[in-house]
Amino acid sequence: MPSVKNLKKDINFVLGDIIEAVYICEMTGAGKPSDASNAIIDEAIESFDALIAKVNAKNVENKKAHFKQINAELEQTANQLVAKINAL
Fold first, then answer.
1. Three-class HEC string of 38-77
2. Phi-psi region of 31 (alpha: psi -120 to 50; beta: other; left: phi over 0)
3. CB contact at 8 A, 88 and 39
4. Above 70 in pLDDT, residue 1?
5. Beta-carbon contacts of residue 51 (< 8 Å; ≥ 6 apart)
6. pLDDT mean over 45-67
């Protein structure tokens, strides 16, 4: 992993794009937020907070493995959220 800074940017961009996709889906569909779309946005925000907290953890023994785990978790979370968006 090149840097912690880039990992934080990746987390921000990926989850930000997912939230933006929810808004686009809302505007092309009903034109107003639904409970399902709000739940996806809330889940994306909670995932962001959890991942950033893990990145900022200082008591990590193997940093390289820790950051790879965070990157894998980001990918898994993003795939789950995209699947939920597609189901809207």
1. HHHHHHHHHHHHHHHHHHCCCCCCCHHHHHHHHHHHHHHH
2. left
3. no
4. no
5. 11, 70, 73, 74, 77
6. 92
